[in-house]
Amino acid sequence: MAKRYSYITGPDDSTFCDRVTERLNDGWELYGSPSLAYDSDTARMICGQAIVKDEGNEAS
Fold this sequence. Notes:
The protein is α+β, with helices and mostly antiparallel strands. The protein has one helix spanning 14-25, and strands at residues 2-11, 29-39, 44-55.
């Protein structure tokens, strides 16, 4: 079975949480811990979360 990987990033706000929740509801799973970084240019926190999803092998 193939596994897809994606990394979601964005400001630490409800929109970021909604994006992660939408992916979880589409069958993705959290992979590891979330990360936070401070963006001094915009004076805000930026979140990141890795996610993975198992997918069947597709015939060529």
